[in-house]
Amino acid sequence: MRAVVAGRPGPPDVLSIITLPDLAPGSGQGRVSVEFAAITFRDTMLRSGRADAPGSFPLVPGNGVGGNIDAVGPDVDPAWLDTKVVTSTGGTGGYASSALAHLDDLHRVPDDLELREATALLADGRTAIGLADAAAIRPGDRVVVSAAAGGVGSLLVQLAARHGASVIALAGSAAKLGLARELGAAHVVDYRASDWLERLDAVAPDGVDVVFDGVGGDLTAALARRTRTGGRYLQHGAAGGAWGELDGNALAARGVAVIPLAAIGSSRAELFELVERALELAARGDPRAVVGQVFPLDDASSAHAAIEARATIGKTLLVP
User: Fold this and answer.
1) Which end of the chain offers a freer environment for a tag, N or C, measured as fewer CB atoms within 10 Å?
2) How many domains is the chain built from?
3) 129 with 210, same domain?
4) Which CATH number belongs to the domain containing residue 12 in this structure?
5) How do residues 224-281 score in pLDDT, each as one tens digit?
6) Residue 118, in any domain of the structure
7) Full DSSP string of 88-136
8) What is the C-alpha separation between 68 and 71, in angstroms, rounded?
């Protein structure tokens, strides 16, 4: 089998393609012949050796794949063979032509959903639906989605609009802002522009009700100040390079609830069910996964570099 390995922590070019022995599924496991491997921002953090995402090296990154089951463990029902699935892989091992997964992690792909979209939804769909549930979006809410053209953000724009919210999408390029409008955003703001706060205040002069913060950094404090009484602030990413700092006590005193990412699923069963919901909804076309770019497995380093440069739209996948 072919796999991408990071022999040590470092920049994207530490990733290289190697040949490893074929995997043999053990008790309770299935082997997936990988057609698509999902990349998450956390993968880039693991590869770089960041203290907030520790990993042990050598490391085969990747925690989400889509493909067909081509072998099963001795105690697994052979009816799983040739089943099209998406699955997590236990945190690592996804950037490969084959991956092992536990039976309890396998999600059958609905007939009306393409495998690549299903793979894109494995982590991002779960996160977006869990965040939308936790935010309890109401019709008429003003909802800010930062990193609105990313994998999670593009889904949140659709989910919030579907709930009747007025969505304000923050993104960093004309193409990304255009995608956000296409997905249902009522207003778009380029947060890399020098006057972005003035533009935000112009469309939400009385503040906003919900913030989905996928960027972090300096954006966090600015958006927190604009979250009004009864509002909800949800941090779910650090695409800007670092998590933003929130004063939870000060926000609580103003009647703003800070909802942590951990609130989207307190158990493995709940997280599994969120993925099932994401797949079911996407099979009906709402929301739809945006797969912006697909890289060959051999070029995983370029994929990581593009993500870190904020040059990607929607979800990024690898193909063996």
Assistant:
1) N
2) 2
3) yes
4) 3.90.180.10
5) 999 999 999 999 988 887 889 999 899 999 999 999 998 888 789 999 999 999 999 9
6) no
7) --SSS--SBSEEEEEGGGEEEPPTTS-HHHHHHHHHHHHHHHHHHHHHT
8) 9
